[in-house]
Amino acid sequence: MHDLWIFMAASQEGRFEVGEDAEFQRLAWRFQNVGFVLLLLFLAAGMLGIFGGGGIFARTTASAGEITIDYDRFARFSTSSELEVTFLPQAPSPHLIFDRRFFDGVDIEKILPAPLAMSEEGSNVRLIFSTVDSGFPMAVKIFHKPRHFGALHGHVKTNGAGPSFTQYISP
How far is 136 from 132, CA to CA, in rounded Å? Predict the structure, then answer.
């Protein structure tokens, strides 16, 4: 009975009978909590589409003038991405003019419909398409793979006006 009283007294004073280290336990709990928060942040980033391939903010739209661009806000390096440009074509030769930095930052896989001609004009690239009925929107899809990490900026216009866009490329 005397030994039980000593054990209870030691436990009540904050000492541990089995050789536990309270400071180490607090440190382990702190690391566990930090790890749990990092895991939640990682899951939230994935759900938001930060890592590419889906998520709440996976695709976004930019528009100005007669042009609307639908594209992946977050893309993966060396993984195919799609940029869709919708515009009202002007007869006789519907065209889109991109600034060169977009084409310098990607490898073009395919453009649908295929342009009749593609030419460089200073710091711009002009895509000329076949004639279509005026008054109806035309959609052009550009499939590309980013060449580098970070922000990929671009600007597209037709008849002088058009939106700018930015894709964020992750590894």
Answer: 8
When pLDDT is cut at 50, 70 and 90, the band that residue 3 belongs to is low
pLDDT tens across 159-170, in order?
Answer: 777 898 888 888
Q: Is the pTM of this model over 0.85?
A: no
Residues forming a β-bridge with 155: 164
The answer to whether 151 and 99 have CB atoms below 8 angstroms apart is: no
B/e letters for 86-125, b = 16+ CB within 10 Å, e = fewer, are bbebeeeebbbbbbeebbebbeeeebeeebeeeeeeeeeb
Q: Please report how many Cα atoms fall inside a 13 Å half-sphere around the Cα of residue 31, on the Cβ side.
A: 6
**C-beta pairs of 1-5 under 8 Å, 24+ apart in sequence:** none
